[in-house]
Amino acid sequence: VSNVTNMSSMFYNALIFNQPLNSWVFTTDPSKSINMTSMFRSTPVFNQNISNWNVERVNTMNSMFYSAQAFNQDLSNWDVSNVYNMTSMFRNTTVFDQPLNAWGIKTGNVTTMREMFWQTGAFNQDLSGWDVSSVTDMWAMFHLAGSFNQDLGAWNISSLTNADHFMTGKKLSRVNYDNILRGWETLDAGETQIPVNIVIKFGSSKYSNNSLVIASRSNLVDNKNWTITDGGTVSVLTNNGELSGSYTINVNKNGVLGISSGVSSNGEIID
User: Fold this and answer.
1) Structural element, H or E, at residue 182
2) Nearest to 11 by CA among 60, 61, 49, 65
3) Between vectors from CA 138 to CA 162 and to CA 186, what angle results, nearest 5°?
4) What residue spans define the domains of the chain?
5) Torsions phi, psi for 112 (to 5 deg)
6) Would you say residue 39 has pLDDT above 60?
7) What would the pLDDT profile of 50-74 be if each residue is shown by its tens digit?
């Protein structure tokens, strides 16, 4: 297939296709670009090794594995350095859970990751090393991604303009959400700006009742005009032993009270 540049919808809705393709050779001609939009979309049984593919000339992977329900193969060696569109790339992939952090700086040309991991049932891999400095659109990127719970605080979001529904319908751990708020509010080396006027949803994720975290979130809201929807702060024990915020109390058969989610060493209720 070394002369093929348009593979858009090549196996779209191929209901029983599941054949080996790892020997395929693609063009490396720098004057050419390959389109893999919807290439394996709605292929319910396809699950073949394609890790050896040289995809350096591919520029769009929009919906490439959208609803590829059986696909769960290693793509970590792929050179995605020329890809600019990863919209819905893994959307509705039920079992896909492979490491992708090795893509690292190779994602530096991507401008849209819109819906990329929408409703990925199993995916929960480290993405902290990705270069997202060119990404403008993260709309619904992790919407209903039930298993995903990672720290994205190191991401360079300088170009971000659209992040509504980023994580609707899900919940990050307190630590990971804290790190995102702290990291995204801080202008680190290599970052050009903290974007303004961002509307973003983090589902029911809760942040610490900690002055540094609260200050970071407040700076984004008050000074950068962000609209953040989340689960609020975690509940804490006050100095007089009273509970503030929402919580659930259980009583066991011996009449002993307990907080179902537990209390950490600093008095914080862990939800």
Assistant:
1) helix 174-184
2) 65
3) 80
4) 236-271
5) -135, 125
6) yes
7) 999 999 999 999 999 999 999 999 9
Residue given tokens 């942040």 in the structure block: 207
Please tell me the distance from the alpha carbon of residue 199 to that of residue 216, in angstroms, as a whole number: 16
pLDDT at 250: 45
CB 267 within 8 A of CB 244: no
Written as six digits, the tokens of 62 are 């929009």
Q: What is the pLDDT of residue 239?
A: 52
Instruction: Report the DSSP beta bridge partners of residue 163.
Output: 200
Could you tell me which of 119, 126, 125, 106 has the C-alpha nearest to residue 61? 106
The rounded mean pLDDT for the chain is 91
Instruction: Report the share of the chain in percent with pLDDT over 90.
Output: 85
What pTM value is reported for the model? 0.87
Amino acid of residue 237: L
Contact 48, 17 (CB under 8 A): no
pLDDT for 257 equals 41
Q: Report the DSSP beta bridge partners of residue 123.
A: none
Q: Which helix (H) or strand (E) holds 249?
A: strand 249-251
Q: Using alpha carbons, select from 155, 95, 150, 145 the residue that is nearest to residue 116.
A: 145
Evaluate whether 64 touches 38 at the Cβ level (below 8 Å): yes
Q: Mean of the pLDDT values across residues 186-202?
A: 95
Please list, in sequence order, all residues whose beta carbon lies within 8 angstroms of the beta carbon of residue 227, skipping any fewer than 6 positions away. 198, 199, 200, 221
Number of helices (H) and strands (E) in the chain: give both, helices first. Answer: 2, 8
Residue 8 CB contacts under 8 Å (≥ 6 apart), including other chains: 35, 36, 37, 38, 39
pLDDT at 236: 61
